[in-house]
Batch of 3 targets.
Target 1
Amino acid sequence: MKIIITLNLMAFHYPTNIINLYFRAIALKINFNLMKPSICNLFNIKYPIVQAGMIWCSGWRLASAVSNAGALGLIGSGSMYPDVLREHIQKCKKATNKPFGVNVPLLYPNIEELMKIIVEEGVKIVFTSAGNPKTWTQHLKQHKITVIHVVSNVRFALKCQEAGADGVVAEGFEAGGHNGREETTTMVLIPMVRKAISIPLIAAGGIGSGAGMAAAFALGADGVQVGSLFAATEESSGHPNFKNAIVNVPEGETQLTLKQLTPVRLIKNKFFKEVDAAEKRGASQEELQHLLGRARAKKGMFEGDLEEGELEIGQISGAITQIKSAAQVVEEMMKEFAEVRGRIKNMEI
Amino acid sequence: MKIIITLNLMAFHYPTNIINLYFRAIALKINFNLMKPSICNLFNIKYPIVQAGMIWCSGWRLASAVSNAGALGLIGSGSMYPDVLREHIQKCKKATNKPFGVNVPLLYPNIEELMKIIVEEGVKIVFTSAGNPKTWTQHLKQHKITVIHVVSNVRFALKCQEAGADGVVAEGFEAGGHNGREETTTMVLIPMVRKAISIPLIAAGGIGSGAGMAAAFALGADGVQVGSLFAATEESSGHPNFKNAIVNVPEGETQLTLKQLTPVRLIKNKFFKEVDAAEKRGASQEELQHLLGRARAKKGMFEGDLEEGELEIGQISGAITQIKSAAQVVEEMMKEFAEVRGRIKNMEI
């Protein structure tokens, strides 16, 4: 959008004595080229912030609270049976009249059923992850759904663009949960993806403040996806023990593990240490699978077992010190973003 | 620095007819609070860019070229015998009348001798790394040397401040060469260190463009340290094969390895793969030491053996596509930085 403000500070005529005395107008023409971030238009939201769709944390309560605050809330379907997802979508529609979306890990076993519910319930925005962007994009787009796919490298970002996705989330090594094998960090990944694609780009991984958001924009992103910070909000459905673990985890106390299977970033609790020790002694994939057992993520994040459960969270948890409401998180991020923007503007270089 | 520009656009009196007609002055008072990055004042340099002191790449030729371009060049003493360092310092003094510094890894075996030479030769700026900041800071400061220490976590950043260091380089996981065990990325590390310390903060790791520089400033840094990009310049003393390897390495083709010993980020060549395989099968520290052998870094980076040598480089190498002069690197970074700043200023949020 282009706004032209013309200030005619003085434009007047003065007769002095008999002869007309005449003053020239002084016109100050100030030209602003103000650009709205493309994802605000794409999703029809006020702030270019997306709340990550996270297992066990982001149900209808968090998603609707975030959307009501002017950002984009996502229901994380990865931990939901199909009927549970339908219930969450219906509750979310009742709780907000703002846009919201659903995150779908494409490796979900009942994926067809999930997609059917998403279409039936009239969901307008879907974030897909952990799979080939080609598989579902066209199907969803036929139902007029905006499709974003999550990637961790340039190659897959290009695949998304070719598949007709409306945008890409590029997620760095510092992000919580499942993660790319290349271990490319947000700082390195975003400028490379930016150069490769022309569709909207959302940065994820390590972003938990307005400063991080400004950094992401500097790197070329059109918006940010924020996970850990929202996992620790009042509206998150994570167990209170898990939220307390997030606000108390010291710097450097998360680590990417299970690299032989699917890399995942976890808090270094008892469960993590067992897995890590097994990896270090060269355990086979079968041994690791056995050690992993079942429902460890639910046990940790939803049931609050901080010893035996799997606690997925990003590195930025080290900077999170308080449980807040989702609205407060959005408001504070935008406030700090404005401050940082002012600081950068006034740098004398 | 604070600049106040006062524009008295019109300030005059007019008598019309008999009665004095009187015009009010219109005063537009524009107040800029332009802040020069603190490291420009600290080092007395034009641009807030430090060229990392790197083994086998940053001798007097690179350091003086960078300093002549308005940034801060560093001689990397880690790969130099004491006499060689003295020669490089003397040549650097002849090649530039701008400030330059020396990087000293504190684990260097002849550290006393190096420090003696640094003082004797009147070096004004020293970057120390890989050791306790308390050990040498006061000694150097007694000789009126500006001391910066490189860290990879908040705890050590605080130690530097307590030790009286003049500033800190905080280096993220994506950086080349030796690296912290916490694996904290630049995006996460910088805001945390910024909150913890009040002395100047230089961001390192993953910065190879004006966009990365702007991101670092957004995160709270006062300057940036750039390694990989300068390792691939014409003035770098790295072997041409190594420089070509840097500009050709694809995204995701560096990895942090040797985590049992001292973590180091390498290009995934034959040597890396042997080390990595040994680590994955749970090799002991002794086995790893034996495999590592001697002088692998020199063999790779200085002698150009891309198979058997150790090739230390940062993740950002994936974005480096051309060998340029050091001056061109500095100039292009500053140009892109200005563009990014303009883009962020004009965002409509």
Target 2
Amino acid sequence: MTFAAVRTGSVQAPRTQAPPARVVITGVEPRVDCGRYAAKRIAGECVTVEADVLADGHDLVRAALLWRRAERDGGEWASAPMEPLGNDRFRGAFTPPAPGEYEFAVEGWVDRFGSWRRDLERRVSVGQSIGVDLRIGAAIVREATKEASRTGADTDARRLEEIATVLEGDGSEGERSVLAAGAEATALMDRWGPREGRARTEPLRIIADRVRARFGAWYELFPRSFGPDDRTHGTLRDVARLVPRLAGMGFDVLYLPPIHPIGRTFRKGRNNAERAEPGDVGSPWAIGGPEGGHTAVHPQLGTLEDFDALVAVCKEHGMEVALDLALQCSPDHPWVKEHPEWFRHRPDGTIQYAENPPKRYQDIYPLDFGCEGWRGLWEAVLGVVRFWCGHGVRIFRVDNPHTKPLALWEWLIAEVREEHPEAIFLSEAFTRPKVMKELAKLGFTQSYTYFTWRNTKRELEEYFTELTRTEMREYFRASLWPNTPDILHEHLQQGGRAACVERLILAATLGATYGIYGPPLETCDVRAREPGSEEYRNSEKYQLRHWDLDAEGTLGPLIARINRIRRENPALQRDDTLVFHRTESEDLICYSKSSPDLDNVIVCAVNLNPWREVWGTVELDMAALGMEAQEDRTYQMHDLLTDARYTWRGARNVVGLNPASSPAHIFRVRRRARSEHEFEYYL
Amino acid sequence: MTFAAVRTGSVQAPRTQAPPARVVITGVEPRVDCGRYAAKRIAGECVTVEADVLADGHDLVRAALLWRRAERDGGEWASAPMEPLGNDRFRGAFTPPAPGEYEFAVEGWVDRFGSWRRDLERRVSVGQSIGVDLRIGAAIVREATKEASRTGADTDARRLEEIATVLEGDGSEGERSVLAAGAEATALMDRWGPREGRARTEPLRIIADRVRARFGAWYELFPRSFGPDDRTHGTLRDVARLVPRLAGMGFDVLYLPPIHPIGRTFRKGRNNAERAEPGDVGSPWAIGGPEGGHTAVHPQLGTLEDFDALVAVCKEHGMEVALDLALQCSPDHPWVKEHPEWFRHRPDGTIQYAENPPKRYQDIYPLDFGCEGWRGLWEAVLGVVRFWCGHGVRIFRVDNPHTKPLALWEWLIAEVREEHPEAIFLSEAFTRPKVMKELAKLGFTQSYTYFTWRNTKRELEEYFTELTRTEMREYFRASLWPNTPDILHEHLQQGGRAACVERLILAATLGATYGIYGPPLETCDVRAREPGSEEYRNSEKYQLRHWDLDAEGTLGPLIARINRIRRENPALQRDDTLVFHRTESEDLICYSKSSPDLDNVIVCAVNLNPWREVWGTVELDMAALGMEAQEDRTYQMHDLLTDARYTWRGARNVVGLNPASSPAHIFRVRRRARSEHEFEYYL
């Protein structure tokens, strides 16, 4: 091992005359997979960084947080001081001003002047003579003088020289030590003092997203079902007319399944029949026909101009369109002829269709992303995304990303975000947990989750504790869906309307980002294709439907109320403050979310049993809610769903929830602030 | 972001025609600080490695563990298969044959042949035609043929070609699919089959030590106290005569405080008096006089030949000598004149003595490891260690390593171990937790701990859980000392003999490596210099003492018995299986250790109150002891200290311990193996 090979912290010591850095920096947070991936944050919000910064001996160690926008050629680092928290831990913060990728690093050094002054004070306090020590201090100040001169800070340099001269001069030891401890010397030496044994970490990365990446309500619908009746193919213009209603209900994102031409070869019929009957519309995910592929609009839906008009209407109403990026082709997709090299060929000369042996999906050809012409294919996919970005789309829901190379996504998302840092990618990967995590790490802004299959209290608590209390919180943003066109869970099928309400409220309060496959959920249409199936009967995936969303008893008004509660309460706009509270009953789940300043605290209690009323004690974790001092005092619980107000006392209170009438409380804890960290409760 | 910048796992994709690796490898264990440091293991013992290895899609993924001795120029990698554990986790193992540094890496790839064959079986099971699929398989086998040919494995290549020919030939589909699934095809394809989308991690490091690094009993003494009486300076020859007794008591290591010439300038007197009286012998840590420095033997102790003789006697008795490496100089050390540049100079021309302001230690000059001539100084220190290695020393107890640069130790220890992989360095750093951890990470084989100050049940359980259940277990080997020449804890001062026995048993059973500052502990001499001090009265650090180790009532026989128990029970020779068990009383602590195969299980129960008998229920964690199936059966607890045998039933049993007679049980759980994982207990 040579001297040059001695590394301190993660910093390689340069092969210079100076010894390796004295300072070691470890345990930097946030950090995903040892820094391989970026942690996710929101632009305009503070990013807190912590690190262990330590050195041998007893000298004072100091640290700074360096940060900058990540650019190809780097840029100037901004610097913020880090505060010591004790036990060699330091904390600093910065705020990324706009969406984009940022780098940060931690720098640590031995503060010779500060250490000297601390020791000087100790000597003075026991009356030791400090003449020689003051001369040592003067020498340290003179080093700072040199540094200031070198940088052209001549005024500072002159003043430092004056201080050094006084320190080693003939004044009284008392006067001289007071000068050394003064504010002026401190400020100048903080700026110019020698930073001995300095170490700096490798840069770590932060992705700063816009707020929509963290908080939003999505509505999914099939445009073709919004024609004037169930025999007439709906259009994008029909959907545009629906936008004011959706905006009025508080939705932020309108998500459309693929809007491209649909293949004819091996087209599936109604209820996924192997063969389509004449007039069957086919699955929107069998993308491509003679009319075009991934950059074309299905003629029956309208034109590209109609799409632009839909985007414009959404924008007018504060919403935006999310498109489905499904990287697969029908046998009629133009690429099949134009780029046969992008598909896998079988020894009999046919193109390999999709399959999950022994199941075959002959209406779909997968793309071979590892083929010889992979670069062309990858660029073509990027071209598709750029095309829709050019039409105002900034949100992409990616279909089955786990069946395409992970590296494709890392590259694609980075490329798109370099041009459009506000772009959002939602990963629709329902697969093995580590693959889902990897997709989130490598760049997906948001991810579908197992929420749909987590129905018991224990399942929900375990899963959401993992999402919000492990390293996942740094990179995995959950998007919660009570239902999707592919998943109609048994719980909804059996629980009916009460289960729909229960799962809707769970999704909208457990998840700052949630979505619904709207029409069936609003109308509580939970009929399965057959028993044991998660497919809808007469699924819109294969046929037109017609929905009466304004009929008596639909969930529209409730959904609107919930979305309004979400918008009015910052606690529900984030997931990192989620806390579960103990309850007596397996059917009763209770959790809270709060704003970081504890000004807005929401407590939810939900009946998980759609068939039975539940009564049970809820035991609030008072400390987590900043209420530890009020263990035996009363406070008000304001149910934002019903506007009822309850008086609670202490941690343990009883809740009763009837699935038919009110399956959940969404309480706002009402209290009046007395000081920053102490509250006085109403009543 | 360019294609080349797409990395998968920790592997940078090469800028070639091939797409980036499909496989991602994360979560590799063992790994210290993201791979910055080596994990510690024992040569000749199995190193288990786990990793998450995953890829997109549904193809079979496989993984291999690569390992080799770490050498300047690298070397051939050995390879071992890794077994899938489920949930994308894989496990493999290798055994480092000898002490030294090793590297390992994990490689993962998509198994095209295996995936193809799995799918083939699924097709066959539902009676699909597989003609085309067999031709696809033939093509995969032909790729393996090419690989085998390329490597010169002509026999394998020929056989593979034959298999390919049959697969695409005219035989029945059944016969051909049987051939594809056969053992021969499997073995050949495991060896030569295409490894698609292959990824490999950066190498991680393992330090393999000899067993003594994990397990050993140390005895510390001041040689000068073993003269014929308390007025005559003892010698190394006197100590050599003591070796058979220490070996007989079961000690492995004889640790000597510095044996070098002692300075005269500012020499300390008895009980750390500021000035020595004539005849005072001074502190051995004030190293260096006109007779020499760190490579000289104090003339009053004898000669280098006497030292060599002591090393030889130890070796003869299965023991070895540990030397104290204290990198500081008395003002009379030869380096002060020969290398004034290695010391810090004050503006008044004097050399800076050691201080912790306002305290001054004028008998000691610290070395300035960051001085301009640091390379020369660092090499000189290495020279000192090499000198004593040349005299047969392989264990160094390093004094206050935390007051010297961390990088010095990383470099020094690596240099020494490159020549002497069996070298052991014990860090005597009693300082802030993260600095102690850093020293262990960067290379110290063993570390002193806070054990000495952890006296209550809660303190002990918390501390030893941290040591054995967090990342610390990978790099921090605890060396437990009930007492040292610097630390006579209040608990011993007040608890007297019972406390000495209690702390001795705790150290020897909680720690596979433990040590005692022998003479005071054997004789229970726990008198403090003054109340509130952790210093001994008439400390050997400043004067000669005379010890009657064979007097009535000393702890010698008990210590010998404990060391024999340690040697006879593999459970006590490791720390990684430590488990604490619940007890009813704060004065009663209970813990177990076991051999990995659960063949040897030791349960200790210790009374932590030296003044009072304790009775209480112990509730064993039966699962941790491999006894879950015997919850309601009886078994035998054999107290190895007293040879008494107790019959226990189930998890909860009562224990009574009298500090005066038997403050602890060291039980061996007696049972007869019925099968590998099932035991039948003795009545």
Target 3
Amino acid sequence: MQVGIDSFAAAYLEQSRAVSPADRVGELVEQIEHADQVGLDVFGIGEHHRKDYLDSAAAMILAAAAARTRQIRLTSAVAVLSAADPVRLFQQYATLDLLSQGRAEMVVGRGSSIEAFPLFGFRLEDYDALFAEKLELLLEIREHEQVHWSGKFRPALTGQGVYPRPLQNPLPIWLGVGGTPQSFARAGVLGLPLMVAIIGGEPRRFRPLVDLYRDAGRQAGHAPEQLKVGVHALGYVAATTEEAANEFFPGYAAAIASVAKERGWAGATRAGFDAT
Amino acid sequence: MQVGIDSFAAAYLEQSRAVSPADRVGELVEQIEHADQVGLDVFGIGEHHRKDYLDSAAAMILAAAAARTRQIRLTSAVAVLSAADPVRLFQQYATLDLLSQGRAEMVVGRGSSIEAFPLFGFRLEDYDALFAEKLELLLEIREHEQVHWSGKFRPALTGQGVYPRPLQNPLPIWLGVGGTPQSFARAGVLGLPLMVAIIGGEPRRFRPLVDLYRDAGRQAGHAPEQLKVGVHALGYVAATTEEAANEFFPGYAAAIASVAKERGWAGATRAGFDAT
């Protein structure tokens, strides 16, 4: 098992929004450096396009971290592939792979917060079609230096080369999923490693979906060891379970309340929290 | 006067193409670190999308350099704005500005080598219209956190915010020009600092064009101190002028011969070289 940390580069501290964004990003790079020194396996940066987060160009933060670390793997968590150009995204992570001597990974997803769609001129109605097409192109670029490809949402490629090529071949690409069964099945069919985002709800409820992933993968002929599963979840470490829960719950409840308001979810209760 | 170095991150050494791309990029970051230590003012990375260069995602290399340097300014040289999305480009350089505590700059241009156009689905017929429109949007994003804009080559923005915001306000944006008079005039009218690329030909021939820039700027009402001029040119340092010329000319002639073949230029002679 590998253990890592994901960050969305929040633009504020718990107490205040007054922290300087430059200091905040600098501290984040120092945190990644520290994570490398204590032996964590991986550090991921999310992608958002809103005032609250500083991670719209996540690969840039990872590039800075690559220059300060030696062992830790560096990944998107997740890159909003639906709203990106797979050519540019591959170029960035291939460059990250060179900068880090082969420590880059990508987790790509459809995007959980939706502000990237209007910003880059895509329609939410195409939410899944965009992702399917762009994933196809991204995997094509990973496999072939010269790319022949055409689709609906991006100009065709007629043999153009995409450079630089990464040091790792293939560059690891994970599929980031939420709770949509179709996404788990897609990852299995493609034989891609699966990263499950559990940002609320009980982990055990995801078990049938992981089984669906493994079944779809096996039926498509992929070897079991290729069908890796990762979990992105909220975490907090303290001396005892009770201490951790007491320290963590207030901030967690406030964060869930804020997301819940935007997405029409129910809020978090301490009883529900303790049960999971 | 400020002095700096630009690199295109060539994928090969003079002797061989066999160098590892990861080692080459690593050495480049070390060179930027060294340039910072000896007190150079600025380091720039170009943008190409071909096998010979490793700089397609130039901002990534600059981000790695930001984490290893303290004083030196870091810039694109040039970013091919015509084929880029100004939103993504601004996000990257704003992030670079945060990572470097306010040392980012951008030099944006129409692009000298043209492989970016088919790769990103743009037409060479739109060479100048693309640049004019994207420059307008880029400056709009620099000026306003929430952007209202519409154009021909990119979906409209109807008040979306572009984040993160850079530490420097305004983030320095230079206009990179070759030999086109219209480009010099445009930079003057907009009051943008000018970066003149002299990759062949005699520097003194550019004087009338620089005068054109300054006249256009003055007429548009910009203060003279705002109308800064930079030169990007080939350079080589040795103990004496003759030594420098003898060591530099063979490689220069070979490089010019290679570009000349592609673009239908004349090659370089030693007599012409010594005269400039």
